[in-house]
Amino acid sequence: MDDIESAAEVRYTGEKGLEDALRGADALFVYDFLSTAVPRAWHAADRMRWVHIASAGVDPVMFPELRESDVVLTNSRGVFDDSIAEYVLGVVIAFAKDLPRSLELQRQVRWQHRETERVGGKRALVVGTGPIGRAIARMLRATGMSVAGMGRRAREADPDFGSVHASAELTRWLPEFDYVVAVAPLTGQTKNMFDAPAFAAMKPGARFVNVGRGELVVTADLIAALRGGELAGAALDVFDTEPLPPDSPLWSMENVLISPHMSGDFVGWRNTLVEVFAENFRRWHTGRPLRNVVDKQLGYVPSGQ
């Protein structure tokens, strides 16, 4: 932040001081991207022109007053793409090669030979065709998996997905895939898209991976599908309530892999997020176009931005 401090008055604050800090401020850097404080303090933003959030998801700041204003919103798209793709590849291999069971048997000092699955030849549907979804598709394809995407509009000959299916036809396409990876942004259209009918439509033996937003999933329906055998397993990095409550049945399910919203958090990611903001600040300060401008009606950065 040194270069920014030399060019502007910088006010550092937590949630309690946000209202005072917003008065007279031209720009806001939401470094704590999980905070819900901005909507409550927004009435004090009397000259705000630009808000930047240190995440790819922008739902914490998509409240009506900001959405309907002329304030430009940018995000940190691009920072976590490859790291999240590596996480997805890791859990796919962990499922296929039964690694959680191997670790459990190791702790029990038990030698139990088993046969495992091949990854090559399996089919994956990546729901969300932004940069993170594309990185996931490229990484899974490198293992010999067949990958398709799902987005707002259907199309063919996509460079990363090949075929992209329309999200309105989710239940039609789910039976075709061994792995379903949720990485869609949270919008009015995607909230609760993975519900009981969606899980019931999945191929027997399919696994579900969520690295998008917890609210994409109806958690009770997911638990019921796992208990009922409609799903062979789930790898979950995000949840509708975080931290995941200690009494959640998901903790004790043998076919569930849980991580605490960390799939993209590589060593050094915090500094990288500040660097992204600093580069955009230099653009803003010199009148150049900002990067990663969010379409506030869509809730994400459109392709090509």
TrEMBL record:
Domain D-isomer specific 2-hydroxyacid dehydrogenase NAD-binding: 90-263
Entry keyword set: NAD, Oxidoreductase
Gene Ontology MF term list: NAD binding; oxidoreductase activity, acting on the CH-OH group of donors, NAD or NADP as acceptor
Keyword Signal carried by entry: no
UniProt domain D-isomer specific 2-hydroxyacid dehydrogenase catalytic: residue ranges: 18-294
InterPro entries linked to this entry: D-isomer_2_OHA_DH_cat_dom, D-isomer_DH_CS, D-isomer_DH_NAD-bd, NAD(P)-bd_dom_sf
Keyword Oxidoreductase among UniProt keywords: yes
Domain of life per record: Bacteria
Span of the signal peptide: none
Pfam families on file: 2-Hacid_dh, 2-Hacid_dh_C
Similarity comment: Belongs to the D-isomer specific 2-hydroxyacid dehydrogenase family.
UniProt-recorded name of the protein: D-2-hydroxyacid dehydrogenase
